[in-house]
Amino acid sequence: MLNSNETGFSSSHNYTNTTISENATIVESFNTTLTNATEFHAQARVLQPYKFVSLALATCSISVCVLVIILAFKKNGKTFFKWKRAQRFVVMTSTCDILFYGVQLIYNINVPLFALQYQPPTAICSIYTVFLLEFAYAQGNLSIIVAVSAFFYILKQEELDLGKYDWKMFSFMFVFPAIVLVTASFNGGMGHNGL
Fold first, then answer.
1. pLDDT confidence bin for 110, thresholds 50/70/90
2. Which of 56, 60, 84, 194 has a CB 3.0–4.6 Å from the CB of 190, allowing a cystine?
3. Are residues 90 and 150 in the same domain?
4. Domain that holds residue 28
5. pTM to 2 decimals?
């Protein structure tokens, strides 16, 4: 029913869709001519309510995690590495939350300042991406460590050796993801698409 010339493309990117039924012809056209990508980003950033929601959730999460850490240190007066492992895991999870949501909070405050005038530079996007993913991977790796530790405890009835001052756990949580992310960043894998 449709002919090949009913949808036409011109050099100004005007797209026309023509729908033909038995009794009527409906023509819809819209113009998508923008001068450049900067104008597109400026129009896309008019009002973004998710930024306000993200700010509120990040602030709430940081507040609750700080409260958890303060109460944990008040309850367990001795040094951190003499605590029970479950208590340390709670504090480490809260610390990862603070770091992750802290970067998000800084991003949501800083990037709109850049966005008022131009698109944020690739280097800034790359830095935010590396830190956001580093702390997200750290928390994911911590969840894996907690699960493996609980499985090992149930299976062998003894605790998993994480090294003195938990260095094996911290290296798996922070060092390995940092190496991967920094390598990807230097090879151009963390630009505007990384966020």
1. confident
2. 194
3. yes
4. 1-33
5. 0.65
